[in-house]
Amino acid sequence: MALDRQNANVTNFGLARPRTNIDRRSCKRIVPMKVLCLGLCRTGTSSLRAALLELGLDDVYHMCSVLEENPLDAKLWKEAFDAKFEGIGKPYGRDEFDALLGHCMATADFPSISFAPELLEAYPDAKVILTVRDNADVWYDSVLNTIWKLSNFLCAPPRTLTQRTVQAILPKPPFNIFKYSPLGNFPEEGRQWYSDWNEEVKALAKGREFLEFNVKQGWGPLCEFLEVEQPKTAFPRVNDSNVFKEFHNTRLDVERLVGISTKLVAALAALGLAVWLAKK
């Protein structure tokens, strides 16, 4: 049964459920894990999530699930990252992923793809989809002009007063999904990262039911792979590069925030000067 759109909002990240405040630590698996989508960000993962929801795979875990739907999940993902990459705490396995993802029939995008080997081991019967772009250059340009540009501005050591001011105002993310990836050195390593990642996923998924999929192909290959009837509606298209830029220039509105913060700093400075002069 397809997702009831009345209970979901169409956002720039795709179809998003209303925000909840669920502590999943004691949750259990309630639906089977059917599909692991292991393509990198900016390969159409938001569109794929919307498509899978349309096909009745309820739910599909995505970065949207943390940012838009249940922010408490960030605590568990931080535990998982700390255990895998820092050696802090117990590594996540089937039990831990069932608690975090037990309501999902599929996963896509970060943060879950950072645990591709663990998820493949935990769910041996799940099919695997690798989303790809036309080539490495197309993907590189997309990431360079969206995620890397924004992440670098918000997370890199500030080089300007504007950057420092914005970083001081905006809340810090609960965990850094890119800390253990080449994104920090993306201009030099990005293209190779894309190629290496895709080859690694193919190797890890060897022997599994596997689909390499470009969302430009539409419903046909996806529905055939999943053995479901093809919808009569158009294949969803969400969170492309233009939408990403518009989203971060309106909702986050970094440029407006920069302007406001700069004026605020100037106003406070003027006020301080006025107070100082009044005391003279």
Automatic annotation (TrEMBL):
<protein>
    <recommendedName>
        <fullName>P-loop containing nucleoside triphosphate hydrolase protein</fullName>
    </recommendedName>
</protein>
<dbReference type="InterPro" id="IPR027417">
    <property type="entry name" value="P-loop_NTPase"/>
</dbReference>
<dbReference type="Pfam" id="PF17784">
    <property type="entry name" value="Sulfotransfer_4"/>
</dbReference>
<dbReference type="InterPro" id="IPR040632">
    <property type="entry name" value="Sulfotransfer_4"/>
</dbReference>
